[in-house]
Predict the 3D structure of the following.
Amino acid sequence: MMGMIDTHAHLTSEPLMTRIDEVLANARAAGVETIISVATDVADAEKAIALARREPDVHATAGIHPHEASKVEPDDWPKLETLLADPQVVAFGEIGLDYHYDFSDPPTQRRVFARQLELATVRDLPVIIHCREAMSDTVSLLVDHGFNNRRVVFHCFSGSADEAALVADHGWRISFTGMVTFKKSQALQQIAAAYPADRLMLETDSPYLSPEPVRNKRPNEPAHLRHLADFLAGLRSESVDTLIRQTTTNARAFFGLPSRT
């Protein structure tokens, strides 16, 4: 069976980083061949890059999460530009808007998001979007900065069918987490069941959102990706081998990852 790719995990978060060797060994044993460790600020990106240099099956991203927008310092911008040029970095993210929490006020979030999109316009890197209760502003800023039909993924998608269609209309994609396995996620399950096979990707968003049947296990970790793959395969009435092969192929193409021989 082809190995799985966890397209979004926070390996540098304390619950995972303090036992990183065990976490990575568990992932490999579960059939996860590659993990993208997603950053939330400049310091976090530096940690993710250091981990990716050490571990050949880990790749890094660089970006400033909307929760961290109010903490940005002027010298973070040149640091971020340097990090984005690092060969270990395979994506810009996670960036975007979150109006559910008030860790950073919306105007500051929009300013920081726009500044990052300006940096992203000159780089051929895929962009990982965090969007919560902010779809209209997120889409507007992406369109205004010329991201129609570019490599953009709305990670941990939890929106409506209309929002999923809106994302698709702009040539972007969504990715699914363990949230889709929850009993109360029927609407999300309907979206995932009908989602185009050639655009489907898997993520754990570790250390968050442990899937059924390990929903009560904390922290979530990349090894649990197999539970998500099994669930989605059943939801879509296909074999898990078929789903893993397709999602791994999709992730390699989207992030520009080398094929495994």
